[in-house]
Amino acid sequence: VLDLYNETTGIVTFLVGDNCSVNQKIATLLGWMRSHRLNLEVNRFLADYETEFVALNNLLTS
């Protein structure tokens, strides 16, 4: 995709991915309990950034 816009990976700050098939594959590989524990840990980690998420959501939906 970057090639389409004559850009390089040097402009990439972060990547976001939320793909149902990928999520299901990870859950299958981890097993139900480990997948649930991973989800809890990710949510705990992201909780520190709740203020930023709310501000971003407000910006994108206004």
Automatic annotation (TrEMBL):
| Organism superkingdom | Eukaryota
* Name of this protein: Uncharacterized protein
Question: Which PANTHER family does the record associate with it?
Answer: BED-TYPE DOMAIN-CONTAINING PROTEIN
